[in-house]
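Much of the work behind modern protein science is quiet bookkeeping, done one molecule at a time. The fold becomes a row of whole numbers, each drawn from a learned catalogue of backbone shapes. The protein below has been through that process, and both of its lines are reproduced in full.
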Amino acid sequence: MPISPDAQDVIMQSFRPSTRLQYKTYLSKWETFAKERGEDQHAPTAEALVDFLFVLHKDGLGHSALCTARSAVASLCINGTHTIGNHPLVKRFLKGAFNVNPTLPKTSVVWDPSVVILYIKGKEQAEDLNLKDLTLKLTMLLALLSTQRIQTLALLNTDHLSLEKDKATFRVDKLLKQSRPGHHIGNIELSNYPHCRRLCVVTTLREYLRRTKVLRGDTKSLLLSYVKPHKAVCSATIGRWLKVILAKAGIDKHYSAHSTRKAASSKAAFCHVPIDSIMKSAGWSRASTFQRHYQKPITQFGSVGLALLDSAQ
């Protein structure tokens, strides 16, 4: 029997909002395809799924998009004793599609965070910056020194901020990409940097909170738009802000805003910051994740943020 619409809704709630949004597009295409083929969209053959993926492949979708489409269909389908997405024929097709149209990294070189840090150091003190530049500066410092995803930065909340003389601590109470039962990101702790006030994220944060106090009203989100009506910003906006700073610092435009996480983590490893600190700061549960994605040697490691700032001096 097909899965009821109500049950489908509950199943889809097991995915993060961003994943549900991606799946919705492909499930709509799959529903149309299955109806045209006379297939049961909840119990299709592996051949039908391969043909569906081939249609998407002909439309120019890359390997990553095809895998997302496969996962979307498989989330509501069972074929025999295993999910249809793991059928040998489907897996073989995806390998072939990758070979035909490989998705390769834009660049194999990680940019040096020291370039951006020195750019920030060359700007005015936080008190002398206009709101736009102060916002961009704080956002970049948060991204580099916390090594967090842009999604996490968008969820930082003043209600869950503990601001002390020598540090700022954020607690994230929302589900993140890496959240799962029994595993959630710990507190994000940012240390004071007395060696240079222009690079001190705690100093910058204090000034930002002071400057935005009269603008935020009931808004609890940390990062606000620097233009009226000064509402809380989404991940896409934060990503654009980071790209602006990267461009001004002279970083190649091919790097994405998310590359701050990769660059900061790689630099921390290069500076011999211990593994436990990198994993805790970035929210990874296994060292193999860092090694697989960044291919940098991991040694025992201390404070990510302080190591990055010291390396730029």
